[in-house]
Write a structure and sequence with these properties.
The complex is a heterotrimer of chains A (202), B (103) and C (851).
Chain A (H helix, E strand, L loop, with lengths): L1 H24 L3 H21 L3 H26 L13 H24 L16 H8 L4 H23 L11 H24 L1
Helix pairs in contact in A: 1-2, 2-3
Chain B lengths: L5 H21 L3 H25 L5 H31 L13
Helix pairs in contact in B: 1-2, 2-3
Chain C lengths: L1 H6 L7 H49 L6 E12 L5 E10 L1 H24 L6 H20 L3 H19 L6 H31 L5 H7 L6 E5 L22 E4 H16 L8 H4 L5 H10 L4 H8 L1 H4 L3 H22 L5 H21 L3 H29 L6 H4 L13 H15 L6 H15 E3 L14 H30 L7 E2 L28 E2 L7 H16 L1 H4 L7 H6 L10 E3 L11 H21 L3 H9 L1 H8 L4 H48 L6 H20 L5 E4 L3 H4 L1 E6 L6 E6 L2 E2 L8 E5 L5 E9 L5 E9 L43
Parallel strand pairs in C: 6-7
Antiparallel strand pairs in C: 1-2, 3-4, 5-8, 9-10, 10-13, 11-12, 11-14, 14-15
Classes of the chains: A mainly alpha (202), B mainly alpha (103), C alpha+beta (851).
């Protein structure tokens, strides 16, 4: 059992770390999104090992099913322009910064491990921890108010996202002919896309 | 389910967080930036769940994670909407072109 | 009448509120909504306000008791502390006695007539509503001035009329000249107001009240000496040696009453245009003519006389202050009269005449004849308003063709108007007779004669008190003032009739009269503001027949002319027809006790009228000969014979130039110095250097403001790294628990925790070699022993820090608590661990700092 557990852990961790790396390092955002998907699936696996079955399911549903798909939609909506060109500025300061951050992080890790009494094996999780029943009981008793507020937040986010993404719309009642207005709008959008496509191809 | 020490999870979370942070600092593509933020949020989530595992009397860490996921979903939707609006204005995905407020 | 007395009891006479509120309401409505009301509405509002106020004033006057007064207190304004620590309340309170009641009638009555006149005179002015708002506001302020029950309320009105005067002088602010005249009036009045404020402070200090009643009854407390030099604690001890010449052998003192009197008179000299502050009044003629009539002739400028009369109880205590008032009045009367002799501007003549007449009023109050001085205020209000309005009527007629302000007021452009403007001419003539002092009929005769008679006979008894010495009037002073007044009267009648003959007699010199002349589309510019878009040369233009002014302008003229005659019979004391004088008697009952008639003058009342009558005849006949019979030829001859003297008088003795060179010059020089300081110190060092410094930091900081989100995020990360570095750096520190020190000699040290720390405790003799996770350490001390304990802290990266604590146990027996089994020492109050009561600090530890 032990070896399987370790193997599962390392597999999941590999997914997470490699996925994170691809997310950050790939030039093509589609690949980045795929890396993100991999990291998310890996983390879901780790949740399973940490007695958080319900969260693992939520992770897959919300992140993999909704967020990553949303990213993909946007990438596809933007088409080739979603890919930014190569950064033309000097790379040195940026990698220097990354190095500093990395060194500081490694230092912090060392510190944390030296402060703890050393890796200890975990005791068995109590029955019902992280299951839908156990989690749900607590969610709907102790955390019911934040839960409702989270619902309101999501509603606001939906409305806000729609409002922002739609952009400025001409009030059809003010326009001379309502039919023309729509046509003009879509024409404008098409014009934008064509000009941009031309840019990329040229 | 107990042979993997908690520190291992924390190391994975730290590595993931640093990856996200470096990505956020170095990349210029708005979409990648948003993804980096998602990575960092996930790293934090993993830490929360891991610590919840060694204090198993309640589900506080997991519940917190649950809310972080909800907020992250909201953030992703609004963030992507802003990216689209920005694209409509500047016809680019590069974050350093977002400088209209700079005189 | 009785019903009214019940309705308005004397101690709560609320009708005064209506008298005050109506003009205030008029000002408010006309000022805020005048433009929307339209000219008819504004006229109705202004006239109704003043008319209502006038009717209420008449009613008030009728209800006036023979003695005492009607008062109304609105609310307690402030309460200040006097020198004895007593509370001095200052109320918004108003009261009316015979003095202020008469003033009130003049203000509202003449004010109403002038409002009526203005409604026609200003008809075509775009600032019509503004004009009436100011005028109503002025009436409100003037009523506050005369009705105020205490000096503070009087001062409020005093400043209010000053403001209105400023606004109305500069009413046509489009021209620099007018704005400058307004400014001049305001600034000169400020000098006077300073005096009045000082006087108020002195009265509060010495008398302890600002109420007129209280000042009158408590005036005797002003009979003490005020040290005016050296000031403060200036003495040979506090002054450097070379300044010792400043210290007199005896302190210079002055009678408090004299100080108050002189300071009040400084205020009065400013407001009532006396030497040396008279210079603003002639310039004030830049305002519209009705304003000159109301404010700068009939009412506001007499406020100074009113104030001296009101404070008569203070002035009679100080013969010296009275002498200053009287002499200043006499000098002003003479000086202004001489200037008036050669002025060509009709309004300027009247302005200097006003200054001169104000001088007569001050002669009156200065010789202690307060009632006589006030009579002249009363009669002067009618005839001078009539003269100004007549001048306005003439200017109105001339303005049809000559639009330039200066030239339309120049008597060189008038002449022969008696044929075209009969009403104006007759009223002007009557007013001239009144001011020049036509015996019996002219009201000025009675009032001026009374003043001069009182000056001739005055003998002021010095009220004395222990420890004060009073300056006494020399016996010749009264007579000198009398003859100065008579000389002034000659000039007065001369220049008044000069203006009359040059305006109404002879040939018309304004333009060539063409009865068929039609206005070429210009419209009748009935206002006298100078938009000189017609550059016609003198005498070369043609124009219509000069016309008489319409009824709203002539009715006030006729009423005022009637009063110019009739008012004399209210004050004609020599023939014992003086109802006003009887009414005023109680007001001045107290102060008139110090004034008596000089011995040996009893039978001279009628003989001493003769010089006055002679002065009238000399001036009038002289003017008639010079300007009627000989067409002004003698004046021109005088000008060629004594060109420099003529020029000097024509230039008003160049007093303005003198002030420009001295006072204004000094202020300018001071301003220049301050300009330099401002430019180099304030601007150069304070402003520019500061700005440069801020700009420099801005430039530096701007480099960080790249506008890229990631740079900001990187800065945040750097900051976090810095904070993290501080958190994990080893910091050796420990809290000391010495609760058991006195009992067992044990001290417990607890090291402060930190991420990844390990600790080592070194005590003398015992030295650990390894770092451990234990944070607690206990040291045992013998009585009187001292030990150094060093705490070493190492963090995860092996960097170390240390701190040494010196622990001392006091020698035994101090509190007898060192032996086991002894009674426990009184417990110190329970304190959080680590805090040490101040008394025990020497017993314990002093950190020796990081090593």
């Amino acid at each position: 059992m032990k070896i399987f557990e370790l193997a599962f852990f390392f597999l999941a961790s590999l997914l997470v770390v490699l996925g994170g790396f691809f997310t950050v390092a790939s030039r093509n955002p589609i690949r980045g999104a795929m890396g993100l998907l991999s990291a998310i699936v890996g983390i879901a696996g780790l949740y399973l090992m940490l007695a958080a079955e319900f969260l693992a399911a939520i992770q897959i549903l919300v992140y993999a099913g909704a967020v990553v798909v949303l990213f993909l939609f946007v990438i596809m909506l933007l088409g080739p322009s979603a890919t930014s060109g190569r950064d033309t500025r000097s790379a040195l300061p940026r990698y220097l910064g990354a190095g500093v951050l990395l060194a500081a992080s490694v230092g912090a890790l060392v510190l944390v491990f030296s402060a703890s009494a050393g890796p200890r094996a975990l005791s068995a999780a109590p029955t019902g921890m992280g299951t839908v029943e156990g989690f749900g009981r607590e969610l709907f008793t102790q955390a019911v108010v934040p839960f409702e507020i989270a619902g309101v937040l999501l509603l606001i986010a939906v409305v806000g996202a729609v409002a922002v993404a739609r952009g400025k719309q001409v009030d059809p009642t003010l326009a001379p002919a309502p039919g023309d207005d729509d046509k003009q709008g879509s024409d404008a959008a098409r014009a934008v896309l064509t000009t941009h496509t031309k840019d990329v191809h040229s | 389910m107990s042979s993997v020490p908690i520190e291992y999870y924390l190391v994975v979370a730290a590595v993931l967080f640093i990856t996200g942070a470096i990505g956020f600092l170095l990349r210029r593509n708005l979409l990648i930036l948003l993804m980096s933020i998602e990575l960092m949020l996930n790293a934090v989530n993993l830490t929360l769940v891991a610590y919840n595992r060694i204090h198993p009397l309640n589900h506080n860490g997991q519940i917190f994670t649950f809310f972080v996921i909800a907020v992250a979903a909201a953030e992703a939707s609004v963030g992507l909407a802003i990216v689209l609006a920005f694209y409509r204005v500047r016809r680019t995905m590069r974050s350093d072109e977002a400088d209209l407020l700079r005189s | 009448m009785e019903a009214l007395r019940t309705l308005f009891p004397a101690s709560d006479f609320t009708l005064l509120a209506a008298i005050l509120a109506l003009p205030a309401l008029g000002a408010l409505v006309n000022g805020l909504f005048g433009k929307r009301l339209g000219k008819e509405g504004v006229r109705l509002m202004a006239l109704a306000a003043l008319g209502g106020s006038f009717l209420a004033s008449v009613l008030t006057y009728l209800l006036l008791p023979a003695e005492g007064k009607l008062t109304w207190t609105a609310w307690r304004w402030i309460s200040i502390q006097g020198r004895m620590g007593q509370s001095i309340p200052i109320d918004v309170a108003f009261s009316v006695d015979a003095l202020s009641g008469t003033m009130m009638l003049v203000i509202t009555g003449v004010g109403f007539l002038i409002h009526l006149y203005s409604s026609e005179y200003m008809k075509n002015d775009p600032g019509f509503h503004r004009f009436f708002a100011y005028l109503n506001l002025f009436c409100f302020a003037m009523l506050t001035l005369v009705m105020g029950d205490n000096l503070a309320m009087l001062f409020v009105g005093w400043e209010g009329v000053g403001l209105c005067s400023y606004l109305l002088i500069g009413f046509w602010y489009g021209e620099d000249k007018n704005a400058a005249a307004g400014k001049k009036a305001f600034i000169v009045n400020r000098i006077g107001d300073f005096g009045l404020l000082v006087a108020m402070a002195l009265i509060v200090y010495y008398v302890g009240t600002l109420r007129f009643d209280g000042i009158q009854s408590g005036a005797s407390s002003l009979l003490q000496n005020v040290k005016i030099w050296p000031i403060g604690n200036m003495s040979s001890g506090t002054l450097p040696g070379f300044l010792h010449f400043l210290l007199p052998e005896q302190p210079v003192t002055i009678l408090a009453a004299t100080a108050v009197g002189l300071m009040v008179f400084l205020g009065c000299a400013g407001k009532s245009a006396q030497i040396p502050l008279y210079i603003w009044l002639p310039d004030a003629m830049a305002g519209p003519t009705p304003v000159s009539a109301l404010i700068h002739a009939a009412t506001m400028v007499t406020a100074g006389v009113y104030l001296v009369a009101r404070l008569s109880a203070v002035f009679v205590l100080s013969p010296a202050a009275l002498a200053v008032v009287a002499v200043t009045g006499a000098l002003t009367a003479l000086l202004a009269a001489t200037i008036g002799l050669f002025q060509n501007d009709l309004k300027k003549v009247l302005a200097y005449s006003t200054v001169s007449q104000l001088g007569y009023m001050f002669i009156g109050v200065g010789v202690g004849a307060f009632a006589a001085g006030f009579f002249h205020v009363f009669t002067h209000a009618f005839f001078k308003a009539c003269l100004f309005l007549g001048a306005g009527s003439v200017i109105h007629a001339i303005h049809v063709r000559i639009h330039d302000t200066d030239r339309s007021q120049d008597m060189g452009n008038m002449g022969g108007l008696k044929a075209y403007m009969p009403i104006t001419r007759w009223t002007y003539l009557i007013a001239c007779f009144a001011i020049a002092g036509l015996p019996i009929l002219g009201s000025g005769f009675w009032s001026k004669d009374e003043i001069l008679w009182k000056a001739f006979t005055v003998d002021i008894m010095a009220v004395s008190a222990p420890g004060v010495s009073q300056w006494m009037w020399p016996s010749w002073l009264g007579r000198a003032i009398y003859w100065a007044g008579v000389t002034g009267a000659v000039f007065t009648s001369f220049y008044m009739f000069r203006s009359y003959f040059r305006t109404f007699h002879g040939e018309f010199r304004g333009w060539k009269i063409d009865p068929t002349w039609k206005d070429p589309g210009h419209g009748h510019g009935h206002d006298d503001h100078g938009h000189d878009d017609h550059h016609e040369e003198h005498g070369e233009i043609t124009g219509p027949v000069p016309h008489e002014s319409p009824l709203p302008m002539t009715i006030p003229l006729m009423v005022l002319a009637a009063f110019s005659i009739g008012a004399g019979f209210l004050v004609a004391e020599p023939i014992h027809v003086a109802p006003l004088a009887h009414k005023l008697e109680p007001v001045f009952a107290l102060s008139s006790r110090a004034i008596r008639q000089r011995e040996g003058t009893e039978g001279l009342l009628f003989p001493m009228m003769l010089p006055g009558i002679a002065a009238f005849l000399a001036g009038t006949v002289g003017a008639m000969v010079v300007y009627q019979n000989r067409r002004g030829e003698p004046e021109r001859r005088f000008a060629t014979m004594f060109p420099r003297l003529h020029r000097l008088i024509y230039d008003k003795w160049r007093i303005d130039e003198l002030y420009d060179a001295t006072v204004v010059g000094m202020v300018d020089a001071l301003a220049d110095i301050f300009t330099i300081a401002d430019k180099w110190i304030v601007d150069g060092i304070l402003a520019k250097f500061t700005a440069a410094l801020v700009g420099f930091f801005g430039t530096v900081l701007r480099a960080f403001q790249t506008g890229r989100v990631q740079v900001y995020a990187a800065a945040m990360v750097l900051g976090l790294v810095g904070v993290g570095w501080f958190m994990v750096k080893p910091h050796a520190d420990a809290t000391v628990n010495d609760e058991a020190l006195r009992r067992s000699g044990e001290v417990k040290l607890s090291a402060a925790p930190g991420l990844g720390y390990s600790y080592r405790w070194d005590t003398p003799g015992v030295s650990e070699t390894t770092f451990a996770k234990t944070t607690e350490h206990t040291v045992k001390l013998d009585p009187g022993e001292t030990k150094d304990v060093t705490l070493r802290v190492r963090n995860a990266w092996g960097s170390e820090s240390s701190e040494t604590f010196t622990l001392t146990r006091p020698a035994g027996g101090r509190r007898g608590a060192t032996e086991p089994g002894a009674l426990p020492a009184p417990q110190p109050p329970t304190l959080p661990t680590g805090t040490i009561p101040a008394e025990r600090i020497p017993d314990l530890i002093q950190p020796k700092g990081l090593q």
